[in-house]
Amino acid sequence: MTGTWHARAAALNVDGRAVVDGERVAAAGGATSADVNPATGAVHAEVAALDAVDIDRAVAAARTAFADGRWSGLSAEDRKERMLVLADLMQQHADELALLDSLDMGKPVREAREVDVPGAIATFRWYAEAADKLVDELPSTPPGSTALVTREALGVVAAITPWNYPLEIAAWKLAPALALGNSVVHKPASVSPLSALRVADLALEAGIPAGVLNVVPGPGGRAGEAIGMHRDIDALTFTGSTSVAKTLLEYSGRSNMKRLSLEAGGKSANIVFADCEDLRAAAENAARGAFYNQGEVCSANCRLLVERAIHDEFVALVAQASLAYAPGDPLDESSGTGALVSSAHADEVWAAIEGARAAGDVAAGGIRPAIGGSDAFIAPTVVTGLPQGHPVLSTEVFGPLLTVEAFETEEEAVTKANATAYGLAASVWTSSLARAHRVSRRLVAGTVSVNTVDALGLTTPFGGFKQSGFGRDLSLHAFDAYSALKTTWIQHG
């Protein structure tokens, strides 16, 4: 199959132009940026690099589409049917979409094909099916009056999505926004725009009208700022770094107070107590939680806290489990992980590993192999013995680095787990149901996974506390980011 993926990659005919008002268009100023495969360094596309002029055009198209009702005016049943057609088309093009994500950001094509693309398709189907199941409210009012509480689409929604899950996280945002009847301006990460552009083509083919889904690739410094400051965007949903999330908060305040839903950084802890029933399974999950997707996961369980009585044994098990995530050619289905998103990002991750190596002990990994002529690969690395206060213990690295700390008591474990600026996720391993409840309640995290890692599903909300941001993707709660409640009060007595 590896040769097949390489052949498909060679045969791709990629269109890097934006999708605005139902058409493929170049940037008004003609600017483009090279779309680079981090696993090889090869340029496989030139992508339109949009700026404020282009964003104005996309927002105007979205506003017109919303105002004239070509999408917002359809029944929920009609929107559902067209979104289901889009999901079917994505299924037909699943291999192409997986390949685009793999080439863009270096992840194994196997994972993109088996996890990311099916997840995105399921998300569109789930929200499509939910669209006509939402109900209005008829609250109690005094005699002689009737009040109706309705959920209203906001209008123009902007989505800024990250490069680590280009298609799947985009689906988390686009599907509920579209299901409610909003029009969308989507800015994918500048290094991974291709699957988003292709989905916009498929949306038009599915019967979602022109102007309803616009995809505007471009650098954050220009296109992203233009979106954040735009006065005709009603809401902005974002997944990315905490620093950018804070900037978007400023933009909202300086422009039109657009609604924000922000999912930002993380530094998630994985706590393993000595009463864990199956240490080997816990170790395999600890490796998965830290090294899956090259460790480029906002909720990665990158801080391992282990009760001292089992510390040495557990570290050895994790080191062994990390071997399953050895990096290799992303188009080779036997590779454990792929390349990091770029050589520049790999340099940043490697600097963090070198800093950890100087202060602690490397129990696994700690090497940066050159594969296929690229230096964007880093082996899964486990570091123990770092002193308290070391920057790596509290700073998001966003790569395959797992730190291990020992603890003596439950109180110490919880204190260490909460000792970051973030609050996105955490995991707890214990055979005691009482301890599971007790510790989970005290952890400051949007999701606490017990006897597993990084648990999520379409029916449960995903988001964080503290500087991991606010707002929730997934579940019915996601609709809150793209709608507002309206009260209509009728006095008839």
Description of the molecule:
By secondary structure, the chain is α/β, with parallel strands linked by helices. The chain folds into 2 domains: 2-264, Aldehyde Dehydrogenase, Chain A, domain 1, CATH 3.40.605; 269-466, Aldehyde Dehydrogenase, Chain A, domain 2, CATH 3.40.309. Helices cover 38% and strands 20% of the residues. The chain contains 14 helices and 21 strands. It has helices at 2-11, 52-67, 76-92, 94-105, 109-131, 168-179, 194-205, 220-229, 242-254, 279-291, 311-322, 343-359, 410-417, 433-442; strands at residues 18-20, 23-25, 32-36, 43-48, 145-153, 156-160, 183-187, 213-215, 235-239, 259-263, 269-272, 303-307, 361-364, 381-384, 401-407, 422-423, 425-429, 447-450, 465-466, 469-470, 483-491. The strands form 6 sheets. The chain has a 7-stranded mixed beta sheet, with helices on both faces. It has a 6-stranded mixed beta sheet with strand order 8-7-6-9-10-20, with helices on both faces. A two-stranded antiparallel ribbon has the order 1-2. Strand 1 and strand 2 form a beta hairpin. Helix 4 (94-105) crosses helix 5, helix 4 (94-105) runs antiparallel to helix 7 and helix 10 packs across helix 11. The model has no long low-confidence stretch (mean pLDDT 97).
